Amino acid sequence: MPALPSDAQSISKDMSRYLEYHLGRFLGCDRFYLYEALTYTVRDRIMSDWRNTWCKHRRDGVRRAHYLSLEFLIGRSLGNHLLNLELEEPVNTALQDFAISLEEIRDTEPDAGLGNGGLGRLAACFLDSCATLGLPVTGYGLRYHFGMFHQHIENGYQVEDPDQWMRDGHPWEVERPEYTQTVRFGGK
Question: pTM for the complete prediction?
Answer without folding.
Answer: 0.81
